[in-house]
Amino acid sequence: MRIAIACQRFDSAAGGLEHWTCQLVRGLAERGHEVHVVAFHAGPASQPGKARQSERPLLHLLPWSGSRLRRARAVQVALAGLKADVVHDLGACWSAGILHPQAGSGVANRRLDNSSRTPRERWEQRLRPSYWRWLLEYREFERRQYARSRGAIIAVSRMVERDLRELHGVAADRIRRIPNGVDTARFSPSVCAEYRQEMRTRLKLEPRHTLYLFAAHNPRLKGFRPLLEAFAQLRSGHPEARLAMIGKTADPEQRRAAARLGVADFVLFEGFVDNVLPYYAAADAFVLPTYYDACSLTVLEALACGLPAITTTHNGASELMTRKEGFVLDDPQDSHALAVAMARCAEPAARLTMAKAAREMAVQNGMDKNIDAIENLYRECAARRTGRTEA
Q1: Where does residue 41 rank: exposed (0-12), middle (13-18), buried (19+ CB within 10 A)?
Q2: Domain of residue 201, CATH code
Q3: What is the domain extent for residue 345?
């Protein structure tokens, strides 16, 4: 099958979504499909892993534009020239046969993003002309994405499926719910074991220290404020606790918050990292008290590594958890409940039980299962398209 996949960035080192995209592309190529990738940026993952030449995707790089609508039009033109059997759009355009909004609903995201801001931050945002230009363009882009009456849409969780129906008016029969999968070979306890001691030594951690890991490109939306508050509460009874934050963690506001709470000396602000695996390896639990996440890939990766995970019901990945693998909180702003959950993860026996359940859950939601479901949808869409053509 000739498959075209449209995305903004094709680079496994750029983040969880980008790594997932590269895994999908490579998996499809290994299954014998001719895979074309249309993107604006690419890294070494444009030829992922050590795949044979026949298993590598055909990459079509487009010039970057600051306008989302102009980028989408460029993608439309490129896709039209490929004449693919199936076009799978990860949020780069608006007329593909399959739309896969990995970030979920923009409307829902913006509403909950506002909840994560202070009143002053909301006021300052509204004063910026650049924000209103961005918002108007994004609303138009999203309107076009969901205006079509045909084409399948992949929802990565029940939460996203509900948002698509209620906030965007998408007919239920167009939606296919396919949760994200995780690369359980790369993210595994055995791989982490190779990094653990060296990484904990680099982070100056002693055996008695319990390390909690937080990873986010948008730390405010993913709950860094309630996390720091919970961490401060936790340390009153667990002085051995440490917190590592990776991603966009160089913001002075985060450091000021940690200092104000008296925990700055116990928080490791690591910033962006090229390889997240050593941090999963060094950690004892993963914490993401997110206000909104369609289906967090970082949570799935942490679980695959055998880490207990603490997240919220606003994370689609929580739907895959049975609660044996960690904790799912109802309110991302409830720092007390978060501190209680973190304290539970500090207990070695409880942590060991959760770690085993975490790995088992991740294996049941591996990347192969994810690709199987997507491949089946490809066949369905290709057959429907052929039927229309023949008619």
Answers
A1: middle
A2: 3.40.50.2000
A3: 189-364
